[in-house]
Amino acid sequence: MNAANPWEVSVAEHQANSAQFASLYPQQGRIDGNTARNVLMKSNLPPQILAQV
To answer: Which InterPro entries match (predicted)?
Structure first.
């Protein structure tokens, strides 16, 4: 994570996140809301951060 820009994603983070997304079997580049919710709830991010996603 970049302290100056917490939303900046490193190449390694992008690769890991892309692999995780692919494992969710997206259809036409999308996953359904329940699947997204389940993944995001497992992230342990605080609610105020999740609200911005």
So the answer is: EF-hand-dom_pair
